[in-house]
Write a structure and sequence with these properties.
By secondary structure, the protein is α/β, with parallel strands linked by helices. The chain contains 13 helices and 11 strands. The chain has a 7-stranded mixed beta sheet, sandwiched between helices. Strands 8-9-11-10 form a 4-stranded antiparallel beta sheet, covered by helices on one side. It is globular. Pyridoxal-5'-phosphate (PLP) binds next to loops.
């Protein structure tokens, strides 16, 4: 893969916005270059670091990835949209994705007027590189994979992921939003080997920080440089950067949460499997369980009336009759199964 050949022509030649903080980096005593207010109440009067180097330095140490290989976005939503804007010519290019999977890839495709090609997973919610690649043509710029996958919960076959990355002449975006709950290793360790791989992670799930909106993309320094050209200059605000620097040292706490949630997941699986209204539990590597029930719409309504909200996935490909249940606290999980017990 030659990166220049797959980046959109206009982006390849784009002169990005140059902010005051791009033009002068470093320490000074008097800052009169950014039209900021020198007065302040809560230390928010200065523009934040456009490339978030402090946060990236901390993340780089934690993830074992060079900081030049990290892109930070407002949730995973931002890098998902960013790769369309970098690689896909609207109305001409297309992307390929597994189906079912996370809904944002298709929405971002539609917003960017890029054809979104779905390749149905097999009955065990897995895929093969061959079938996925058959759906590509010379206008396919991106392939989206999600492992563990949402809403199915399973990890995709690792060898097929590798074969896809090796054989595809474009970018493979591998979404690892749930990797902290998985027994499978992350692909972050494989980035050196695959210059066309972008790995997405997020603070929204295991890190208990969905409200701050921080998504991470890891890729070659060349890909990250181009993504940075296209993003809004100050996409990650100072409140978020401060918060993340406070949160990242809490790795042990996160590990404890994950341990509790994984134990709870196993208990919940056992109790659900004993309920008459549950027809099937699908294997999961994430913090949620996809279950097939007798009547998904009726059970969803019943739970909602009792104040217990799950996700109805009845209308999703291969998920007819399915509900997606997030693993909560022991009390929340007990309330769920007690309520389901009452369903006639
Ligand atoms: C929840 C989730 C995310 C997280 O999105 P954010 O924008 O980072 O909150 C990303 N990918 C998948 C597959 C998810 O399920």
């Amino acid at each position: 893969m030659i990166l220049e050949q797959i980046v959109r022509h206009n982006i390849r030649h784009l002169t990005p916005y140059s902010s005051a903080r791009d033009e002068f980096k470093g320490e000074a005593s008097v800052y009169l270059d950014a039209n900021e207010n020198p007065y302040q109440l809560y230390r928010m009067n200065r523009y934040p670091d456009p490339l978030q180097w402090k946060v990236k330095t901390a993340l780089a140490a934690m993830k074992g990835v060079d900081r030049e290989r990290i892109f930070l976005g407002v949730g995973s939503d931002e890098p998902i949209d960013n790769v369309f804007r970098v690689f896909c010519e609207p109305g001409i290019d297309n992307v390929v994705s597994i189906d079912p999977t996370y809904g944002m890839y298709g929405v971002a495709a539609e917003i960017n007027n890029v054809e979104y090609r779905r390749v149905l997973l097999d009955e065990s919610f897995d895929f093969t590189a061959d079938r996925l690649l058959q759906a590509t043509d010379r206008h396919t710029k991106l392939i989206f994979l999600c492992s563990p996958n949402n809403p199915t919960g399973n990890c995709l076959n690792r060898n097929e992921i590798i074969r896809t990355v090796r054989q595809f002449n474009g970018i493979v975006v591998l979404d690892e939003a749930y990797i902290d709950f998985s027994g499978q290793p992350s692909f972050l360790g494989e980035l050196d080997r695959y210059p066309n791989l972008i790995v997405l992670q997020t603070l929204s799930k295991a890190w208990a920080s969905a409200a701050v909106r921080l998504g991470m993309a890891f890729a070659s320094a060349d890909i990250i440089r181009i993504m940075n050209k296209v993003k809004y200059p100050y996409n990650i605000n100072q409140l978020t950067q401060d918060y993340v620097l406070q949160m990242l040292p809490e790795k042990e706490q996160v590990k404890q949460w994950v341990d509790v949630l994984l134990r709870e997941r196993e208990k919940l699986k056992k109790r659900l499997s004993e309920l008459p209204c549950i027809e099937k539990l699908y294997p999961t590597d994430a913090n949620f369980i996809l279950v097939k029930v007798a009547d998904a719409d009726a059970i969803y309504r019943f739970l909602t009336e009792k104040g217990v909200i799950v996700r109805n996935r009845n209308a999703v490909s291969l998920c007819a009759g399915c509900l997606r249940i997030t693993v909560g606290t022991p009390e929340e999980n007990r309330t769920l199964t007690d309520t389901l017990q009452q369903f006639q």
